[in-house]
């Protein structure tokens, strides 16, 4: 099964997403902020990286742009989660290299569908 990094600073959302993905059989690694996410990305290989857009220390955008500069990490798909769902924000993320964007709030079943689609 695929290995996923979830970087989300909100504890309740982190738990909800984490439990949902683990129940689906995914191997999950968790980061509470952008700095921790970048550290874990440097140490591990992930099939999918899920980044909250607004996190402390480094934003999801900051992490995304740094990961895209790491040639050895290009195989990982990147999904951005954000309450900032304006078209301009989505285009900014895609231009920086995000594979997809999911606006908050979302249902757990929608997230599972998105993850399955991205890993297919």
From TrEMBL:
UniProt cross-references to Pfam families, sorted A to Z: Response_reg (PF00072)
SUPFAM superfamilies: CheY-like
Species in which this protein is naturally found: Brevibacillus reuszeri
Modification 4-aspartylphosphate occurs at: 52
GO molecular function: kinase activity
Keywords: Kinase, Phosphoprotein, Transferase
Record's protein name: Histidine kinase
Signal sequence extent: none
Keyword Ion transport: no
GO biological process: phosphorelay signal transduction system
Domain Response regulatory: 3-119
PANTHER family reported for this sequence: RESPONSE REGULATORY DOMAIN-CONTAINING PROTEIN, STRESS RESPONSE REGULATOR PROTEIN 1
């Amino acid at each position: 099964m695929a290995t996923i990094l979830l970087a989300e600073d909100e504890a309740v959302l982190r738990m909800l997403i984490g439990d949902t993905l683990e129940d689906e059989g995914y191997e999950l690694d968790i980061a509470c902020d952008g700095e921790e996410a970048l550290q874990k990305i440097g140490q591990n290989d992930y099939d999918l990286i899920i980044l909250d857009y607004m996190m402390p220390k480094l934003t999801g955008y900051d992490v995304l742009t740094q990961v895209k500069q790491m040639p050895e990490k290009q195989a990982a798909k990147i999904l951005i989660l954000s309450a900032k769902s304006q078209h301009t924000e989505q285009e900014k993320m895609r231009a920086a290299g995000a594979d997809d964007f999911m606006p908050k709030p979302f249902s757990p079943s929608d997230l599972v569908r998105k993850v399955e689609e991205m890993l297919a």
